[in-house]
């Protein structure tokens, strides 16, 4: 809080000072040009196709979904039930498990793809052949969730590659049905998505690392900083901006986890590995609890937007000045 | 010491990342009827094309490969064009409340797909768009617009307004300015947006399984998912060969246009 108060004051004059010489000729020209461009509404027809597509196929369904979440709806008949769907959520054990799994996905994604991605980016930074290592690690990012799931089913199956490796190295007692019990099934799928998603974070962190001015590193070296201290007090603070983006994207993506879970376990066994995204799909399209599914979708949307707010703010027009 | 640890760590990670890919390739080579039920660690024969044929013909990956190629190319291109026009309207042309337009169009990418699904299904059933190519293409195009718009708009803000002014003084119409100045100058940005949306549509599963049902309409990831659910009856080598072949387009695009591909995703980090 104090942070925002203290920065809000000085930020404005700086912005204004920088903008005046840049914007004013453009603005003046624009005021003059509006007429020649075809009046103040000239842009509207150009933006209409986008508005029509997004408005009809995304924005209208969005509001219709919120409206529908107040109805008991099995796809054929529907009746208004007020907040019933939401109160039902509170004592639905499947929803509770699904919520827990979703938070496991978020926590697991922050621990694995983000932390591992940072470690790999730092380790390969300015390394000979580091680009090649980065390329290998980012390669699975081009593969879809379903294809990744097909491959990892092969690894995680009871007679799959992982159990075979464990038996081979004498850890046969660790071999188990990785996808058959909670919480192993959720955790193994998080590992599988780590394989797929880490590369993106490596690339993002690598961009951040390249942007760090050499002078700060050299100055710290002169002061005797090495290894961990260098990383903790010099590198990490200067990665702040990119870290916000990486964490924001990681949280959003993990909250939306669907493809891999659906393709690997379909949320099973007995709905134990469902995430919110999957519970919504199952309730609405398999069990025909359309209103209840819409309520779950709204809960998920609120969580997604709320937890990525810091990241979204950066994307606002003008926020990056 | 520190240096050796670092090299060891990187080498270990690279090996860990390559191992699943190695298993994918090796086991998709095993003849499906000779597959013993346990993992092959070395190539056992070369039946990749037989496995591929099973996946391509019997499991219907081939048909849906074609459908998905159509969806991804057409919807990616339409979305980029529509998004570029909207960006042009918001950045270059006079329009009331440009920030509001930005947020309305961009908002489509903020929410999880689940919030759109149930009403879309109802609308599609009413409009006879359920299980039709047109229906899937409409929703893919709409879904691809917001983020393409975000990418293109960001790049368009970096173009000097003097370009437009000079062209206007020369008497060019706005349509001409868009096609002859903005589109050619933003080639790489438009390319990045197209590649990003091509990949997104190609990899989509959720719209595919929600809004279509028949094999000749369903996109390729939905078909691969059906094949994957029939894992033991189809035989793992066939599933893996299918997974490999549906990954090829995006892998190729990634390897050929790596710079553009990553630019799409990393644009929001700068």
Automatic annotation (TrEMBL), chain B:
Protein's cellular compartments: Cell membrane
Topology relative to the membrane: Multi-pass membrane protein
CDD domains documented for this protein: TM_PBP2
Keyword set includes Transmembrane helix: yes
UniProt xrefs under InterPro entries: MetI-like (IPR000515), MetI-like_sf (IPR035906)
Domain ABC transmembrane type-1: 65-257
Keywords: Cell membrane, Membrane, Transmembrane, Transmembrane helix, Transport
Annotated TM spans: 69-93, 100-122, 134-152, 184-202, 238-261
Family, per entry: Belongs to the binding-protein-dependent transport system permease family.
Protein name: Carbohydrate ABC transporter permease
Source organism: Streptomyces synnematoformans
